[in-house]
């Protein structure tokens, strides 16, 4: 499975094309829409999210509720486009016509300056329109299709917020998958720890009041992945490495950890590695899950626990210094609107991005032209490794 996205933040629409989804897989657009809606929520989002109501239009690859095996294309319309018709139109403009909202002042922390240098755009709107995290809606749509596939193979995935602005949620390792899903969904900051909900929201409000922004840490949690998915034989088939790369590809994500992650550097091996055990019912399992479900680029069969760190949003109402590329004069950046914290929304993005990588690995490893065949192959494999 692979996918491409297209679309500018204030352009007409976002488009996602997914290839390699098995045929005859039941799928409904309500599930994709539910994912899109979840991404739009969260305390700290800016005014744009009040304008958009992300709904998917399926334009190919699905018929009467089943996948065809052909490319699936998904469209999400930008409701804000109507305010940007003259700015984002495709037709050439008459010479001398002034275009609204040209950008000559690069924002620190954004793609603006580097993108302008690389592609030769003197109007940096040509950069920011595509580098904007608006694109993550298109990626969530792809991930929602992947989630549908995983769920029907008995693999569940969710995400929640572990930390915002240094406020850390308490340990949640004893919570069931169902509890994680329900509690995160009910929380305005998608945390599983009720005690930090208000402090997190206060920190977001405070940052907003001060014209600043804040970041945080999110966690994706997966149950039901069989052991041995991925591979150790080549660097680009290691599933943890693929997940790490795709997490870092999310706008503003700067780091990734599996299980206890960086803490492993401060511990002895006996405190890090997960001892192997066996029983008739489960087959092989681990007494602990400190390595977060991966060894040697492959799943261990234990829950996958992966964290991503999001830096604070770069667009600030409290201006940072930059240089106007036309005048070369310094200036203090001014802002019309921005999110002050998008960590809760980003957790939903990460969930879907990880889901896609898992579905990709599964469809590579098992016969996957037809979904019922894939389902049977995964079921047989589960039994085979249980008795191994
Ligand atoms: C869900 C989400 C929403 C975001 N919202 C904003 C925003 O409103 N303003 C902003 O400047 N950056 C926002 N960002 C982050 C920028 O898109 C990102 O920092 C920028 O594209 C530069 O990429 P980099 O930080 O990965 O280097 C958001 C990121 C995510 C994941
Ligand atoms: C549109 C979304 O996020 C946007 C991501 C973003 C950025 O610079 O990354 C900047 C903001 O866009 P605007 O300038 O239009 O307000 C966010 O709203 C979205 O998540 O759907």
Automatic annotation (TrEMBL):
Entry binding sites for FMN? 130-132, 251-252, 296, 311-315, 337
Question: Can you supply a Gene Ontology BP term from the record?
Answer: aromatic amino acid family biosynthetic process
Biological pathway: Metabolic intermediate biosynthesis; chorismate biosynthesis; chorismate from D-erythrose 4-phosphate and phosphoenolpyruvate: step 7/7
Presence of keyword Secreted: no
Give the EC number(s) listed in the UniProt record.
Answer: 4.2.3.5
Function recorded in the entry: This reaction introduces a second double bond into the aromatic ring system.
Q: What is this protein called?
A: Chorismate synthase
Q: Which gene encodes it?
A: aroC2
